[in-house]
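Look over this record before class:
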Amino acid sequence: MRVLGEDVSEMLEYIPERYKVIRHVRPKLSCTRCQRIVQAPAASRPIARGLAGPGMLAHVLVSKYADHLPLYRQSQIYARAGWTWIARRSLTGSAELMHS
């Protein structure tokens, strides 16, 4: 088997008082004899093609519904922590998908 490349996927995770990006690297291999490409399946996600992990989604929903913290304030908190690329639209979409 020879290495063709790799696919990298990232998932946001919330650990109390800390945010973490979990990176999954899946190498792509090809068989030199049969020219077949082999790769491990991607890790499952709570929301298909979503970036947030289960801990991050739980934190957003608990903050919104139990702590009554609006999504625009949560996005301001994430921006202060250096996560400026998390848009309020993303939080809204995640909250609506998980709530329904």
Observations:
- The mean pLDDT is 82.
- The two ends are 45 Å apart (CA to CA).
- The helical segments are 54-66, 71-80, 88-99.
- Strands lie at 2-15, 18-30, 37-39.
